[in-house]
Amino acid sequence: MQTKKQSAIEATLNIGSGYILALIVWQTLAWVYDIDMPITRNLQITTIFTVVSLIRSYVWRRIFTTRLNKEFKDES
Q1: pLDDT average, residue stretch 8-15
Q2: Would you kindly state where each structural domain of the chain is located, as residue ranges?
Q3: Count of Cβ atoms closer than 10 Å to residue 15 Cβ
């Protein structure tokens, strides 16, 4: 069973690495498609999506951890 702290750490590492990857991919796509996107705007937009993703990931992890914990107790 995962604690809330462990869920938060997992979600943060998962989404943090996604944040870095998203910045790289977006800058590459902007260059390939000739989209004028200043790095500051890229950082702002990517940060918003990253925060939403972090919250989403944490909530899903807690839902599944709670559900699995309940099922484990029911089987005992």
Answers
A1: 83
A2: 4-70
A3: 20
By the 8 A CB rule, do 64 and 7 touch? no
Q: Which of 15, 20, 24 is nearest to 52 (CA)?
A: 15
pLDDT in tens, 25-44: 888 988 899 999 888 988 89
Position 55 scores a pLDDT of 87
Query: Do the beta carbons of residue 22 and residue 51 sit within 8 Å?
Result: no
Question: 0.90 exceeded by the pTM?
Answer: no
Do 7 and 49 contact (CB within 8 A), yes or no? Answer: no
Residue 10's pLDDT is what?
Answer: 82
Burial of residue 29, with CB atoms counted within 10 A of its CB: 0-12 exposed, 13-18 middle, 19 or more buried: exposed
Residue 70 corresponds to which tokens in the numbers above?
A: 């309940």
